[in-house]
Amino acid sequence: MEDNRFVVSTVEGECKKNGIHMGANIISRPLRSSLETVERGVTNAQPDTWLHDAGWRRKRSLAQLTREALPRMENYRNSKRALKRPSLGELHGDHLITEEEEKTQNPRDTKSPTPAGGIKLGWIQGVLIPCLLNIWGVMLFLRISWVVSQAGIGWSLVIIALSAVVCVITTLSMSAICTNGEVKGGGIYYIISRSLGPEFGASVGIIFAFANAVAASMNTIGFCDSMNHLLKSLDLQIIDNSYNDVRIIGAIALFVMCVICAVGMDWESKAQNFLIAIIVGAIVDFVVGAVMGPKSNLEVAEGFVGLSTSTFVENFNSDFKYSEGMEQNFFSVFAIFFPSVTGIQAGANISGDLKDPASAIPKGTLLALLISMVSYAMMVLFTGAAALRDASGNITDLVISNGTVTNYSAVSQCANSTLFPCKYGMHVDFEIMQLMSAWGPFIYAGCWAATLSTALTNLLSVPRLIQALGVDRIYPGLIFFSKPYGRHGEAYRGYVLTFLVSLLFLLIAKLNAIAPLISNFYLASYALINFCTFHAALVRPLGWRPTFKYYNVWVSLAGFLMCVGIMLLISWIMSLVTIAIFFTLYLIVHYRNPDVNWGSSTQAQMYKTALSSAHNLARTGEHVKNYWPQLLVLGGRAHARPPLVDLGSLITKAGSLMIIGDISKEKLSYKVCSARARADNEWLQERKVRAFCSLVHGFNFEQGARALIQATGVGKLAPNVLLMGYKSDWTTASSEDLVAYFNVLHTAFENRLAVAIVRVRGGLDYGAAGGGEEGAGSLTVTSSGSGELHVRRSDALIMHADSDLDIHTGSSVKNNLPNILTLSTSRSFTITDAKDIKDKKKKDKRPTDMHRQIIYNAANGIELSKDQLTQMSIFKRKQESGTVDVWWLYDDGGLTILLPYIISQRSAWGNCKLRIFALANRLNEMELEERNMANLLSKFRIDYSSLTMVQDITEPPQAETKALFDETIKKFTSDSAAPECRISETELTTLSGKTNRQLRLRELLLANSRDSRLIVMSLPMPRKGSVSAPLYMAWLEMMSRDLPPMLFVRGNHTSVLTFYS
């Protein structure tokens, strides 16, 4: 805990309860213990004590007695308010890990989609009222009567019930997600992205934000229609009392509402309270008016006949007619009604502004849904029981006796007339509810409040969603619109974008044309919410612990399927468009691959799937047709031997396993191991190599290699090929190192692993150029005629140099990249320093050959020529036309021919053809031997350009070759050689025949494969107890010296090729 923290304790004399002091409050300052002060080098430390009133007994707090942290909420926060518990290294006594280093190793994500501070709302003000305002929208007063006229009372109730089922299931799913941890700003986007990952969340977030912006325009159009009706009744108009008036009034209304939302939550909340009161009053006004009945005969002629069973029965069944430019049916009417119940997400949209989102969202949303569905059903019943579908509006059609209407059936006869169509009734009069109310003007006020409040809620949610997307940097184009302004961090630019989108759709000016458009978007969002809960509940990661228990995994799945099914039934074309938009947005995020880790259920599913697949694979028998070389690459640090790693990646690519083994003699701390693992993984990722790194430390090379061979992998996902570099310094290395290298081969064969050894001109080890163990430092470039040019970098950066890239010191360097020079091709590139350009021109105006004279100096002074850098990328770059020569001398199961075939199939080596060299068994049957080998290769379906049968392998080598061999082993045949590395005369004599064959192979290689791009050759078998380490290495030396890159291969003599189907 921090030194300046004061603790409030309670002590009451000697009274204790369960070991805890009870009584008055005492403020005390925990001091470090004596041992800790000594360890930290603090001198003259004050004794540990408590400051308290006289007469109290001195006690120590728990914080003074132990370094352990108590379980507190602040230790688990991902914010700046979070406290930092002691690390395991601190408690364990690892004094090498300082506090600053721990912060560097474990940085906390302090980003929050919503700015800190601002007004926080309760569940009534923040969820219940916004949900009611969003649900009680344009349909409540302008389209509920039209829905009844088309679908009838019965089917209208079915539409409401179906909408309610969808919304209730979605609310239950949403409540489960919202109560599974803190919900921050962003609403639907935050919920889905943290549950299913950024791809799903961002895609649905964009669709949902668009739907809300269009819904705002739809409700504004409803307000404008009502306003036009009022102006028409007063014989007033702006232009035409039609679509143009809607556009003018709507644009002004949208602008004013955006200003209200941008002013802040306080103003918006006050406006909501006023609007909800008007809507409730208007509903009451309508119910009272329906109960009271018509106030004049004119109202009866216009279709309001009062509550009656006959009217209820007449309006109970459906009467689908041609309306709004199309023949209506159940799902078309449902599509127009459904946006009126899409307000359940209103609380989740402003979840960042709620005091307690986890409890407020389920409580407020479910109650709002119950109230709104009951009110809609009540409106359907009263409207269907008191109003006619069609009415002429002519009093003369009424039968009146003593001032009382006795028969009004003739009023509806206009429905069958084409000359005099009906002008009133629920089918054509969208303002009939104003006619049915006790006081007509109040319905206007209620309609305006309902439409404007829903539009206001939609306009309020869109900028917050845009801001959340921008803060998470999912779509770069939205970052500009997410900038916060003011004390409350409002996204004013987001309001401008929302206004423009809503204004664009407002220009359509047709309410029923917009409603089906956004129904699919809302249904798609609700489908993903249900799928989130289903997926999380099915996978059940340990982090899935929602406090809301009233959900079910299969109910959520049913909700998902129901939403998708309704989408297709409403309009399969719009559904396909919606799905296409969703997947386009999904692929954009997937391609960008944002660097986020939110612990989504897809990650948990990935782990479970991988684990299940590994178990299933372990129980599945191996088959030669499914064989893949799984490599254990003894490459040390990943960046230390780029050619070795690149060759392994060339073989495995994305279809097989590659593990890079790193062996350290020194015992490393956890900090160093973590740093090495991060650096290696970043280097592999930057180089696009799919591999795992495995580090063992505290072992010598032989012990570490044995540990890796025996323990690396799990189940069938274990290496079956050991790939290692050729020990080019074997003649100068210590006897222990030479024997250890040789023994690793024996260990591999003992564990039935195949072995591959690669030798490249100039060697494989470029670890010294990485800048040391930590990889820090600078890269210096020198060229003839110029001074030193320095490209500086911090410890956390690297210089990534592509072949044709012009690098300047002033340019930015990408963060978190490995500290190693990486080349992708062999072409040259220049590194310049802006401040030295003028001086360089003055000092040397002579043309220089940068291809040959440029020299690269690592931070530790190691110089690398261009040729050496080219060799570093020999297996990475695109190869020109050439050959891969395969010397398949001995049958090892087919691995010697399979590996070069795999390499030749890669795009970088696609221009290289295979040439096969094989030994002939009988000299007098050369033609038969060649035909048999060709037939074998044909059955294996191995494409090759030529086949050569080697017949003079038993010929004695030339004297020059023999002399070179004798010179090579001279050191190891003298008496001064170490006993374990001495080549005895007996050994030389016994193995003279085998030695001569290796020497003869050298001559054949020089004669046939000197110009090839790669040579793959059978590895001589090091028989235990028969051949010594120096003699065996001398064989390899003779066969690979002064030749192109050489890959020695020896399979484990189990078939890896088959000609059976």
TrEMBL record:
Origin: domain of life: Eukaryota
Residue ranges, annotated region (Disordered): 94-114
Pfam families: AA_permease, SLC12
Residues annotated as domain SLC12A transporter C-terminal: 641-1061
KW Transmembrane (keyword) present: yes
InterPro entries xref list: AA-permease/SLC12A_dom, SLC12_C, SLC12A_fam
GO terms for biological process, alphabetical: cell volume homeostasis; chloride ion homeostasis; potassium ion homeostasis; potassium ion import across plasma membrane; sodium ion homeostasis
Molecular functions per Gene Ontology: sodium:potassium:chloride symporter activity
Transmembrane annotation, as ranges: 121-146, 152-179, 200-223, 248-267, 274-292, 330-352, 364-388, 442-460, 495-515, 521-542, 554-587
Residue ranges constituting the Amino acid permease/ SLC12A domain according to the UniProt record: 126-631
Bias type Basic and acidic residues, positions: 94-111
The keyword Iron belongs to this UniProt entry's keyword annotation: no
Swiss-Prot/TrEMBL keywords: Membrane, Transmembrane, Transmembrane helix
Membrane topology term: Multi-pass membrane protein
Location of the protein in the cell: Membrane
Gene3D superfamilies assigned: Amino acid/polyamine transporter I (1.20.1740.10)
Gene Ontology CC annotation, any one: membrane
PANTHER family assigned: GH09711P, SOLUTE CARRIER FAMILY 12, CATION COTRANSPORTERS
Protein name: Bumetanide-sensitive sodium-(Potassium)-chloride cotransporter
Originating organism: Bombyx mandarina
Gene: LOC114252968
